[in-house]
Amino acid sequence: MTAQNFLTALSQALPEIPVKTDADSLDNWGKDWTKHFAPDASAIVFPKTTEEVAAIVKLANEHGTPLVPSGGRTGLSAGAVAAHGEVVVSFDRMNAIGTFYEADRMVEVEAGVVTKALQEFAESKDLYYAVDFASSGSSQIGGNIGTNAGGIKVIRYGMTRNQILGLTVVTGKGDILELNGGMLKNATGYDFRHLFIGAEGTLGFVTKALIKLEKQPVNLTAMVLGVPDFNSVVALLDRFGKALNLTAFEFFDNVAMDKVLAAGHAKPPFDSRTPFYVLLEFEALSDDVLDVAMGVFENCAEDGLIEDGVMSQSVGQLHELWKLRESISETISVFTPYKNDVSVLISHLGNFIADIETIVKENYPDFEICWFGHIGDGNLHLNILKPDNLSKDEFFAKCQTVNTLVFDTVKKYKGSISAEHGVGMTKKPYLDYTRSQAEIDYMKAVKAVFDPNNIMNRGKIFDV
């Protein structure tokens, strides 16, 4: 009954805030892209201002009503799923792009701004928002901040954390904090901004952000390379990374290529087929840079690291080549993939993936496996595709039995069980593979300071 009492109080105190309780809305806003947990929200509320968010949080504290933040709902760890009767706070109406600080190359945006809209705004100012991934047309900035989203440009520009110069947040107590104010230099004690980045809404809700914009890259050029094995992928990263200022270095396997081509989402880059593919991108600032790229390509081909390849000759061809990589997630979604999003040091990649492939082949001999990832930053996506003869629950249960083996290997190489998707609920049981118990205890202590009544995204990352 706490949710009903909360909603009654909300309608009396703030009748201007829209509330939805119909079944379709509860299902739509109560879930994200994960399919592990059924949504069970009590209501969806749609604030318009930071002050309204603060009022919602204070009322939730009074009535003991847990809240779940909702952005573009593109998350892959159930971090935005309301599975236990929570009230969902949607940021869809908080979607304004505010003040642009030209001299600082910085813009203020509300949490509900869609990533693609920010990218287009930056382009209108002849600037660049560097965080990019397949869900950019749906994901919202608040969600990106909550998971410290990465994507395809991390090798050059870093994660979302690297783009955030300031935040406005509402804590679990309902306090409004304005953090850092967009300054590059501010040596005045703890920078709480970085606590909220990657916290998945468990400490409070981000309502606004001051975003750093970059110079527009010039004459982006891509190469797609067919390679014989994964060790060649790692060797190519080393050779091209030393010779060129890369903006991206992605990889995917032949299964991913098969699915994308079969779905008609892209065209084959060349006639031959290979076990693995690399897509690398760089700024071709001059013909000399192109000559260097071709020289590395020829040397690598002579050494057997490359079996075939193509370089984009136009912006149109650049976009066509990127479809091979960016269409993978959408293409394989129809196969209900069980996803692992892990990272290790680049130095360990070759041995790590060999160990994981042994585990996969021994335990999933009848399952189709799809590899892809942002190999330039040590991030691998292992996707196990559901066979037609298994139900979703049967399939997930089989996958989860091997999770400990996969995460044991991650721990062996001192990696992360979640590189960019967050922990949410799907990775919560495995948090101690990456974080020590002492770290987890400190995290819980920090949450208790900002959210003493445990109403902010309860049950995500860890249980209190």
From TrEMBL:
Name recorded for this polypeptide: FAD-binding oxidoreductase
Family: Belongs to the FAD-binding oxidoreductase/transferase type 4 family.
GO molecular function: FAD binding; oxidoreductase activity
Pfam family, one: FAD_binding_4
FAD-binding PCMH-type domain span: 37-216
Highest rank taxon of the organism: Bacteria
Upper classification of the organism: Bacteria, Pseudomonadati, Pseudomonadota, Gammaproteobacteria, Moraxellales
UniProt keyword list: FAD, Flavoprotein, Oxidoreductase
InterPro entries in the cross-refs: FAD-bd_oxidored_4_C, FAD-bd_PCMH, FAD-bd_PCMH-like_sf, FAD-bd_PCMH_sub2, FAD-linked_Oxase-like_C, FAD-oxidored/transferase_4, Oxid_FAD_bind_N, Vanillyl_alc_oxidase_C-sub2
Secretion signal span: none
Swiss-Prot/TrEMBL cofactor(s): FAD
Swiss-Prot/TrEMBL GO biological process terms: respiratory electron transport chain
Keyword presence, Methyltransferase: no
Matches recorded under Gene3D superfamilies: 3.30.465.10, 3.30.70.2190, 3.30.70.2740, Vanillyl-alcohol Oxidase, Chain A, domain 4
